Amino acid sequence: MTNDLRPRIRALLHATSALLLGMSVRAESAPQPNIVFLFSDDHAPHAIGAYEGWLAGVDPTPAIDDLAADGMLFRNSFCTNSICGPSRAVIITGKHSHKNGFMNNGNNFDGSQQTFPKLLQKAGYETAVLGKWHLKSDPQGFDLWKILPGQGLYYNPDLKTPEGKITIEGHCTDIVTDIAVDWLKSGRDKNKPFLLMCQHKAPHRNWMPAARHLSLYADMEMPEPPTLFDQWEDNASPAHWQELEIDGHMHLNLDLFYKLRPEDDYSSVKSDRSAWVNLKRMTEGQKKAWYAHYEPLDRDLEKRQLSGKELVRWKYQRYVKNYLRCVRGVDESVARVRQTLKELGLEKNTIVVYSSDQGFYIGDHGWYDKRWMYEESFQMPLIISWPGVTKPGSTSDLMVQNIDYAETFLEAAGAPIPSDMQGMSLVPLLRGESPDYWRKALYYHYYEYPSVHMVPRQNGIRTERYKLINFYEFGEEELYDLENDPDELTNLASNPEYAGKLAELRGRLQGLVEKYEDDTVTDKKPEAWIQEMRTQQYRVEDKL
């Protein structure tokens, strides 16, 4: 028996015994737990107080912090592909992007395939998904679905339902929460356990907060990330022609609302125009509140005549405040849903999960958006409360990924875990265990290139201490010692002292490629193609 097989066999035996034990105990003492999956878009862990990042001091998430105090916070939680749709496809299938077929946002999810909501239905659960779906095809495996078309809008959004499209006045985060609360109170079958997936657009671009939050943080000077003015001096060459810089790519009008008016014409601007489109749909009352907040700030900017680093700092301040205002709406949603569970007497038998589809750059490295394997976009929040099972205020430092969620929900429900799922159930961790078979490395693969933001294709491996990123189409690599260089500023790939470590990680990365049967990694592209990519600008409008 090879050493490679032993951890897998131990994991299988442990999962089988845990499943049988869990089913036996549940049959004797407790019903199947309800599962409430609260999910946001682009919420970076360092914008959550409980994660104690550089934004924690502004108290961005009191309700999410309370959830962490009642459950387990995963400090080393990561995605497999840092972009919205693919992350969601990984979560519901328990399979890497190349296996579930949804590798980038241009794909169409094959809803006929195996997903954990379908398997929960077979196990007796009623299932509902509300809010952002972002997989193009209509949801399958849900008794109720009301979803945003595409990215959705912040104000007065449309929602797709099996009966057709509806439009609801209000702010999107509040609307999705209202529907979730109503379903919990009066829409579900009270004789069945349930899965509720309450999925928010916020805090996705263009960061349009609810009117009540516009003045939040207005008198505060937000802390700056230490890498705000990073020049990517030690990165591989693609980092120098990306298109996600606060300085060069964040649009003053469309992203930061400076003098943004619906009567102006932005139809030919190659940028995300959703804020302009959404402003046109606002009610007169919504516009009045919007202008009352931004017009004085716009006049002040005109007087100051900023440029260079000072303009970047101004853009950062407006951006981070709007981002965190959107986060506050999500945080209030978490509080409302948990309060509803308590009012209905459901909190003791309900697993509550908070997560987001990936991390995000909030000025880190001078950027916004995600996609890279660098920590800020690779890491994702994960907080789980399971009363009676998970110790309140506990943490886990073991490396977990969104590929593990499906298996976790299935085991918690006492449902079989299909052998073709590629993740690992977190149930042992939630019970306070630290299994010796747990993974020692993570696999990552991002595909969407050339495309919006011009972040290159990359796969890579992350261990507890080191990270190797392979920009395979460019034939370039980056190697980081995360213990001594947590901001990933010093690329060690060409350092002869790390030649042995580089070779080791290359071998381990190839082992993960083979383990997960990833046949999508290609050879280096011709030099002419590489030179073309260095000069190409690939801005595209969002399709709304």
Describe this structure in words.
This protein has 544 residues and is an alpha/beta fold. Strands 5-4-8-1-9-10-2-11 form an eight-stranded mixed sheet, with helices on both faces. A four-stranded antiparallel sheet has the order 13-14-15-16, covered by helices on one side. The radius of gyration is 23 Å and the shape is globular.
Spatial strand arrangement across the major sheet? 5-4-8-1-9-10-2-11
Low-confidence stretches: 1-11, 17-28, 539-544
Q: Total strand count, please?
A: 16
What letter string, H or E per element, gives the SSE order? HEHEEHHHEEEEHEHHHEHEEEHHEEEEHH
Q: Would you tell me the structural class of the helices and strands?
A: alpha/beta
Largest sheet: 8 strands, mixed
Shape: globular
Question: What Rg is obtained from the alpha carbons, in whole angstroms?
Answer: 23 Å
Give the proportion of residues in helices: 25-40%
Instruction: Kindly estimate the percentage of residues that lie in beta strands according to DSSP.
Output: 5-15%
The rounded distance between the terminal residues' Cα atoms is 55 Å
Mean pLDDT: 93
The total of helices stands at 14
Write the layout of secondary structure elements.
Elements: H1 5-29, E1 34-40, H2 62-70, E2 72-74, E3 77-78, H3 84-93, H4 97-100, H5 116-122, E4 126-132, E5 144-148, E6 158-161, E7 164-167, H6 172-187, E8 194-199, H7 274-281, H8 284-304, H9 308-343, E9 350-356, H10 375-378, E10 382-385, E11 394-396, E12 400-401, H11 405-412, H12 427-430, E13 441-446, E14 458-463, E15 466-471, E16 476-481, H13 499-515, H14 527-535
Parallel strand pairs: 1-8, 1-9, 2-11, 3-12, 4-5, 4-8
Antiparallel strand pairs: 2-10, 6-7, 9-10, 13-14, 14-15, 15-16
